[in-house]
Specification:
By secondary structure, the chain is an alpha/beta fold. The protein has seven helices and eleven strands. It has an eight-stranded mixed sheet, with helices on both faces. Helix 7 links the parallel strand 10 and strand 11. Helix 1 packs across helix 2.
Length: 258
C-alpha cells in the first residue's frame, strides 16, 4: 500500500493510492470492531452513508461475511438520510440502495436496520425525527459513522446553513446537490427537493467518524473543509471539532492539499 498519514486540526488524513485501498482500510476498522464486539456479545452500532462513494466499502464487508465468516447479527445500523417523497420500493430510494448494496447480502437482523422513512407525512416529520434521535441513543450511540462529502460541503444532507447543534430533521436540498443527483434520476426535475437527514450534532456524537472522498471533483471541497474555520456555510468543517475523525482520500481527492 502506498499511503501517507498526517493531521489537520484534530482531523487525521490518510491518503491512499486509490479508492480500493482506502475502502479496504476502512473496512478493516469496521470488521475489527464488529469482531471485538461479537466476541464480547455486545452490539456494534454503525452509521451508514449512501451514494457511489461507500459502495466499495460495502462490497468488502460483504466479502468478509462470505469468506471470513463475519456475522452482522449483532450489528445495528442507522442511515444518515433519505429523500422525502420516495417509497421504499423506489429504485432511487436509499432504502432500496442499502438493501441492494449491503443488507440483502449479509446476515443482519432486519429489525436492526434503521433508515429514515421517505413517506412520513409532512405534519409528522418533526416527531418522527425526534424518535429517530431517541432510537440512536437507545442503541447506545453510534460507534462508527461513515460519511461522504458533497460539493456544497454537506455531510449527510446537512447543506450550507446547517448549524453545529442541528439534529435529525427535514431539510431543503441545495440546487447544486440536486444537480449532482440529476444523472441518476434521469433529470434534475425528478430529483426530490427535500430530505430527512441526521443533524450535524447527531453525527458529531459518533465515537469515530470516517469521511471517504475519491476523485479530483472532491479535491477543492476536501481542502476547503480542512482549511477554513468551522462554519455553518460549510457543514463538513465542523468535523474539525470532533476528537476522532479520519479522512480517507485517494491521491486525486488530496491533490489540493498542501
Amino acid at each position: 500500500m502506498n499511503s501517507e498519514s498526517r493531521s489537520s486540526q484534530k482531523i487525521k488524513i490518510v491518503t491512499c493510492q486509490d479508492a480500493d485501498e482506502a475502502s479496504e482500510r476502512v473496512a478493516r476498522k469496521v470488521i475489527s470492531l464488529i469482531r471485538e464486539r461479537n466476541e464480547a456479545s455486545r452490539p456494534t452500532v454503525l452509521g451508514l452513508a449512501t451514494g457511489s462513494t461507500p459502495i466499495l466499502l460495502y462490497k468488502k464487508l460483504i466479502q468478509a461475511h462470505r469468506e471470513e465468516g463475519l456475522s452482522f447479527k449483532n450489528v445495528i445500523t442507522f442511515n444518515l438520510d433519505e429523500y422525502l417523497g420516495l417509497d421504499k420500493s423506489h429504485p432511487k430510494s436509499y432504502w432500496h440502495f442499502m438493501h441492494s448494496q449491503l443488507f440483502n447480502h449479509i446476515d443482519i437482523d432486519p429489525e436492526n436496520i434503521h433508515i429514515p422513512d421517505g413517506n412520513v407525512p409532512e405534519d409528522s416529520v418533526s416527531e418522527y425525527c425526534k424518535d429517530y434521535e431517541a432510537c440512536i441513543e437507545t442503541a447506545g450511540g453510534l460507534d462508527i459513522q461513515i460519511v461522504g462529502i458533497g460539493r456544497t460541503g454537506h455531510i449527510g444532507f446537512n447543506e450550507p446553513g446547517s448549524t453545529v447543534d442541528s439534529i435529525t430533521r427535514m431539510v431543503t436540498l441545495d440546487p447544486l446537490t440536486r444537480k449532482d443527483a440529476a444523472h441518476s434520476f434521469g433529470g434534475e426535475a425528478a430529483v426530490p427537493t427535500h430530505a430527512i437527514t441526521m443533524g450535524v450534532s447527531t453525527i458529531l456524537k459518533s465515537r469515530s467518524i470516517y469521511l471517504l472522498a475519491w476523485g479530483a471533483a472532491k479535491a477543492e471541497i476536501v481542502a476547503k473543509t480542512l482549511k477554513v474555520d468551522p462554519t455553518d456555510m460549510l457543514p463538513a468543517s465542523f468535523l474539525q471539532q470532533h476528537e476522532a475523525t479520519t479522512f480517507f482520500v485517494d491521491h486525486a481527492a488530496a491533490s489540493a492539499l498542501n
